[in-house]
Amino acid sequence: MLWEAGIHLAKRINKIGMLSSDTAQIFFEDVRVPAKNLIGEEGKGFTYQMMQFQEERLAAAGLLLRPMEKCVEATIEYTKNRQAFGKSILDNQYVHYRLAELQTEIEALRALTYRATEQRTERGDLIAVYRVMNGL
């Protein structure tokens, strides 16, 4: 059984995103792990998890690019067809500006994600996202 003596699961943490993945603290007290079941170096579990979070952040950024673009595309189509005061809402200068701004932000995220992924892949840089954002 997974929850044996010395293993305690704290209350599940409510979070904003990734709802399909439960998050909670797990406490291990006087738990022995056979050497054959050890993954990585002893005492490095927290470090390994922090490294995994970097991978997760890069994946999340990459996976969200297309859905964000689709939102902008759908908004363009809607505002093109929606009429107010006898003309298309898309003809409003501010609406045009805001949609262009949103698309620019998506392209900036794409460039940041690609560059951070490249650094992570080529150099093994665990803080690639932060280095790219700070121009390092």
Write up what this structure looks like.
- This protein has a single domain, classed as Butyryl-CoA Dehydrogenase, subunit A, domain 3 (Up-down Bundle).
- The chain is 54% helix and 11% strand.
- It has helices spanning 45-81, 93-123, 128-133, and strands spanning 7-12, 24-28, 83-84, 87-88.
- The N and C termini lie far apart (47 Å).
- The model has no long low-confidence stretch (mean pLDDT 86).
- Pfam families: Acyl-CoA_dh_1 (PF00441).
- Keywords: FAD, Flavoprotein.
Summarize the amount of helix as a percent range.
Answer: 40-55%
Count of extended strands: 4
H and E string: EEHEEHH
Q: How many DSSP helices?
A: 3
Side-by-side strand order of the widest sheet: 1-2
Number of domains: 1
Radius of gyration: 23 Å
> CATH superfamily, please?
Butyryl-CoA Dehydrogenase, subunit A, domain 3
Largest sheet: 2 strands, antiparallel
- Hey, roughly how much beta strand do the residues contain? 5-15%
CATH architecture assignment name: Up-down Bundle
Overall average pLDDT: 86
Measured between the Cα atoms of the first and last residue, the distance is 47 Å
- By helix and strand content, what is the structural category? mainly alpha
CATH class: Mainly Alpha
CATH topology: Butyryl-CoA Dehydrogenase, subunit A, domain 3
Given as residue ranges, the uncertain stretches (5+ residues, pLDDT < 50) are: none
